[in-house]
Structure formats: structure tokens, C-alpha cells
Design a protein that fits this description.
The complex is a heterodimer of chains A (108) and B (119). With 108 residues, chain A is an all-beta fold. Chain A has no helices and 10 strands. The N and C termini of chain A lie far apart (36 Å). In chain B, strands 2, 4, 5, 6, 9, 10 and 11 form a 7-stranded mixed β-sheet that branches. Chain B is globular. The chains are: A mainly beta (108), B mainly beta (119). The interface between A and B is medium-sized, with 25 and 22 residues.
Chain lengths: 108, 119
């Protein structure tokens, strides 16, 4: 079954770029989706199918995938971007949804 | 506006049962797949269960297989999660989430309902 590995934390200064990675043991052709969760709030979809943005999500947030690593990139980081970020895939071999362990983004 | 509102959470003793509900509005409920995702205190997201629209297929995480049962009532635009044989490790906030049919991401989430299982 799929296992998704994320760094527990990433720190970045305001105005800089944050890269949050998600490593999969069997990404293959799987698509990766990303969610943002601010303290005390429900998760929000920010990237789907590796790089698509739902309406209302700023262009500063972008996604990419290469080989067994997917990356969520947040450009010109703002204080309001401070949150936990989770990657997710659908594991077709097990018919299971899989979430990464989450990455806490801290804006310095 | 899409709205998902969970209810039914609370405090229950280990071995007990609880039924969660999720009331949906603002979209064509019957055409969407739906799921439950939980988050233990201070922990990450864990997928629990998923149900397609029509035809109906259901899927469960290994950790709840055989104890939890997901169902839906399209006429009432409602999603349910029957939780039996509850354990302390089931303590979490349970989120209801929607997924466009044929896609494998959750596009909208409820605010969650807290389930606490005392040992």
C-alpha cells in the first residue's frame, strides 16, 4: 500500500518561497492532492491532480510532481499561509485514500 | 454555497456505539461521492470511509473495517457513519467531506464533530 512521507515542519521568512515535499513509495501515475488546515479549522483543498488550483486559491500556491516526489510551492509567503499542509493520493491497489503525515509551515 | 454539517458526536464508553450524520446542501448530493476523515487530537488526517453515489460502493480503512458502516440517504441529502465497538484510539474529530464523482479528492469539508471514547 502507499505511504506518503512529508517533512514535519518547514520554516520560511515572509516574502520568500516555501517548498513542501511529499514522497511516495509507489507514485507511478497516481495524482497528488494537497490540503491546507489552519488551527481550529477544517481542511481546505488547495491543489488537485498534482497542479490544478480550485477557484479562490491564490496563484501563489502551485503544485508539481516528478517521479516519486510531489511538491507544494508557496511563493511570496504571507503570515496567513501559516498552517498544516497534507498531501493525499488514492491507492488504487487497496481502494484506500492515503494522507501524508502533514507539514507544519511556520512563517518566521 | 456548499455546506456540510456534521452531528452526533459525543462521549461514549469503549465498546459502545455512536452514529454520526452529515447534512449536505448547496450541491447535487446524489451525484457526489462522500467520505469521512478523522483527526485525533494533535495528530494528522486519517481517511476512515468512502461511499460512491450511484451505483453505491463502499470502502473502509483497515483500522475500522468490520466496526464502522457508512451509508447515505440521497433523498434527505445525508451521510451517515455507524460506529460500533468503539475504542479509545477512535477518539478524534470526524469530518464529512464531498468528492466529485469519478475524482479522488475531497473538494469540500464540514467543520467536524468530536467523538471521545473513554476507556
Amino acid at each position: 500500500s502507499s505511504v506518503l512521507t512529508q517533512p514535519p515542519s518547514v520554516s520560511v521568512a515572509p516574502g520568500k518561497t516555501a517548498n513542501i515535499t511529499c514522497g511516495g513509495n509507489n507514485f507511478g501515475r497516481k495524482s497528488v492532492h494537497w490540503y491546507q488546515q489552519k488551527p481550529g479549522q477544517a481542511p481546505v483543498l488547495v491543489i488537485y491532480y498534482n497542479s490544478d488550483r480550485p477557484s479562490g486559491i491564490p496563484e501563489r500556491l502551485s503544485g508539481s510532481k516528478s517521479g516519486n516526489t510531489a511538491t507544494l510551492t508557496i511563493s511570496r509567503v504571507e503570515a496567513g499561509d501559516e498552517a498544516d499542509y497534507y498531501c493525499q493520493v488514492w491507492d488504487t491497489s487497496a481502494d484506500h485514500w492515503v494522507f501524508g503525515g502533514g507539514t507544519k509551515l511556520t512563517v518566521l | 454555497e456548499v455546506q456540510l454539517v456534521e452531528s452526533g458526536g459525543g462521549l461514549v464508553k469503549a465498546g459502545g456505539s455512536l452514529r454520526l450524520s452529515c447534512a449536505a446542501s448547496g450541491f447535487t448530493f446524489s451525484t457526489y461521492s462522500m467520505g469521512w476523515v478523522r483527526q485525533a487530537p494533535g495528530k494528522g488526517l486519517e481517511w476512515v470511509s468512502y461511499i460512491t453515489g450511484s451505483p453505491t460502493f463502499v470502502y473502509y480503512a483497515d483500522s475500522v473495517e468490520g466496526r464502522f458502516s457508512i451509508s447515505r440517504d440521497n433523498a434527505k441529502k445525508s451521510l451517515f457513519l455507524q460506529m460500533n465497538s468503539l475504542r479509545a484510539e477512535d477518539t478524534a474529530v470526524y469530518y464529512c467531506a464531498s468528492s466529485p464523482a469519478g475524482f479522488n479528492y475531497f473538494d469540500h469539508w464540514g467543520q467536524g464533530t468530536l467523538v471521545t471514547v473513554s476507556s
